[in-house]
Amino acid sequence: MTMKKILIMLAFVAMLAVTMWGEKRIFVMSDIHVMAPELLVEDGEAFRRYVESDPKLLRQSAEVLLALADTIRRYDPDLIIIPGDLTKDGELVSHRMVAEVLEKLRGEGYPTLLVPGNHDIENPHGKYFKGAATEPAQRTSPEAFAEIYSKFGYDDASQRDPASLSWAKEPFEGLVVIGLDSNWYYKNQYVERGDPADVNQTAGGLREATLQWAIDIADRAMADGKQVIAIAHHNILEHYDGQSFIARPYVIDDWENVADNLTKHGVSIVFTGHQHLHDIAKRYRSAEMKDSLIDVTTGSTVSYPNPWRLVTVNDDFSKWNFATGYVRQTASLDNVQETCRQTLADNISGGLKWHIRQYWPKIQEIIEENSSLIEKWKVNVPATPEEMTSLAMDYFGHLFVEAFLINVTGNEEDNPRSKEIVGEFKTQVAKLVNDRVGKASEVVNVYVENILNDNVYSWLNSMMNDVNQWGTAMASVTDDLDGKPRQGGNSGGGGGNSGYYDLNGRFVGNALSNLRDGQIYVTRGKKVLKTTTPQPATPQSTTPQPTMP
Hints:
Elements: H1 3-21, E1 24-28, E2 40-42, H2 45-52, H3 61-75, E3 79-82, H4 92-107, E4 112-114, E5 127-130, E6 133-136, H5 142-148, E7 159-160, E8 167-172, E9 175-180, H6 208-223, E10 227-232, H7 243-246, H8 255-264, E11 267-272, E12 279-284, E13 292-297, E14 307-313, E15 320-326, H9 336-346, H10 348-358, H11 360-369, H12 371-376, H13 385-409, H14 417-437, H15 441-454, H16 456-465, E16 500-501, E17 507-509, E18 520-523, E19 526-529, E20 538-539
Parallel strand pairs: 1-3, 2-5, 3-4, 9-10, 10-11, 11-13
Antiparallel strand pairs: 1-14, 5-6, 7-8, 8-9, 12-13, 14-15, 16-17, 18-19, 19-20
Helix pairs in contact: 3-4, 9-13, 10-13, 13-14, 14-15, 14-16
């Protein structure tokens, strides 16, 4: 063999090695909410009423998907991940359109893994819009969903959960992805079946059998030395303290138990969506801070600020880097972000009304518990959700708008208005008390402040400062756009502690001498090979340590 042929062969082998074992790129887009254009048969009153209560860019949602397809081609990822809410309201025609675009991308070398969202299956709200009238659209059953997306997580190469639309797949050798179906579509209600109203479940959780199935998958993968990550629609972690109460439908039911189990069994990162927040949260399983779970939730591509993520991961899946991009224009709309920002701001009142209605029974309980004081102070308490919404908007509307827009964008602490909003909220509370109570306002203010300190201000500080587990030793601050630990936080991960971890990030002990020979372990962000004579550590990132180069 000539030297030239040898060099060509070596070059080919090197290129193949980079392709097979080199850095991987993962494109993440969530809550794309595609509405097939044919659903808008005739523009008119019916569609106008719908979009007034929904801040998403539905009219251009199909265009957004096509714009994203072009972005995907430009960044040339190895995998696409979609954590649910593929359609406006689960219309079969919308699902088929999404699948057609994804199939075209797959044919170009861009495979996709996805899970359903709460909008996607057996949704009673899917409709055709015909002027002032609507007509039901054909719904999508769980079986139909799995068939339509058979090549995107539901094919024969996947391990399937018998109890749900969950799956597990190994898209790259050494990386196992578990797709978790966290939706409660089986609890939906339908007038046509005799229910009092059409209700699509926003909340979700994992069936006990599904959680155990996921644990078994993770354990087997870990035993084989593989990395394990997950995809779910609902947030697995709180992204600010109190989210599971004030925004309960957006965090998975029994979230602490689910998070602890996933962390304990080696799941290191979960990609989520649902609340349209663009945020990265980290939670340690215990006060020892020896292992943790990172929840990377990605905002909606059809809702402000219209983000997507490009994730870069190294060859052994131990280092995960994040970057954020945005949908800025479509074929018919040049200013996507500004349009969506205004739409979202205009919709804050409707969103607040929805939340007050959701928690009205709890509000009534609080009113009843304080009925004697309310009577003593002659407080005129709102009698309906609508009345309370109007009162809240009068005093706090401008603050709700600012806080929500800052929150969905991520990295709240970078905005100078974040810390000011908490103080202004307290000022408005005092004004409200003074206006409603009068002479007794000083006494009432002290009483109200004590209640709010224990309930509202803790989560408001957590949200506006972008700090999970606010005020505790386990508080963590992670950059929501690029995943870097932020100054003042302790989100550096297990590898920053003095213990030893296996290559999957699982804590295995505090002393190298007690660990098995011939194995590689991680300590303080470095890898060490355990032999009878320990070798010097070589620099390397831990599992997973989200940083940007």
